[in-house]
Each structure stands twice: as structure tokens, then as C-alpha cells.
């Protein structure tokens, strides 16, 4: 049987947050589901989930958006990993990243959480930081704005024009990690743009 991958987009629940920078991970899950004409449905693990495939005959993908707030994402992620028998090395967490400029994507496995409370909670719940992260750049706030407020704001007008491309690239990155491995995906997404 093909490997099963759990792909989780971090964010906060409810309409108040759905278009904010902090929810860019969940927007990527929506993009991956839309590519496969899938609808996410409520799951007992406090998440909305779609079961699908990378491509016909390929790896199985469990696309998930926790219903919990960002800082307590670990419970739903851990519950889904147990439910689908997915080890940490086949978990991909998609999340916003302040330290990466808007419109850039970085990929890694393991390491620290960089102050990201959602990633911290997932690592704690899984008992290991050794899972893949697709880090979607949202950039730092201008001036003296508090980063905590910045990530809870919607994307700006100029950013919204570029957002569909960013979401598509992040979805491509997830597919590449599953299909060809982290190194191949890093070589594509970490290379300087022409």
C-alpha cells in the first residue's frame, strides 16, 4: 500500500481569522483540496479533513485543518497522526513564517520552532520536532507594529494580488516533498529566482 502523508495547515478557526496571515497554512490546504476537487469534512480529531491522493496510484494524502486555535494545534495533529497511523516523518506542517519575506517559501525538517507557538505545540504533541515544515513567508510588520497583531491582520491589498501565486507555490512544495523528497523540493524553492 502507498505511504500515507498527513498534511496540516495551521491557523485559527472561524471567519474572523480565515483571511489573516496566520491562516496562510490553511489556505494552502484549501488549494491542495481544490486541485483534487475535494471537500474537507468534520473529523472526530477536532479537524476538517479530506482524504485524497498525490496522483492516481500515488501516495495517499490526508489534508487537514485543525479546528483548534493555533497555539493548541498539537492535539488535533497528534490525534490525526494516530488515527491514520502516520509517523512524524510523514507529517508536513504548513505555516506562516515572519522571518521569511512575503512571497518566499522555505522547507525544512526538524529544528527549533522559531517562536512559532503552533509549531511548538505540534512538536510537543508528536513528541518530536522531526516533521517537515513548509514555511510560507509573511514578512515582518512595518515600523513598530507588534508581530502578534501583524499575523492576525488580513493580507494587504498588494499582497492579496500575489497571494494566489504564493498559495500555488506552497501547494507545489507540499506535492514535491511527498513525490520527490525534501531535498528535491528545497533545491527548487530555495534557489534564487531568475
UniProtKB/TrEMBL annotation:
Similarity comment: Belongs to the PTH family.
Main location: cytoplasm
Protein name, UniProt field: Peptidyl-tRNA hydrolase
CDD domains: PTH
Gene name for this UniProt entry: pth
Residues that coordinate or bind tRNA: 17, 69, 71, 117
PROSITE patterns assigned: PEPT_TRNA_HYDROL_1, PEPT_TRNA_HYDROL_2
Catalytic residues, chain numbering: 22
Its EC number(s): 3.1.1.29
Gene source species: Microbacterium memoriense
Subunit structure: Monomer.
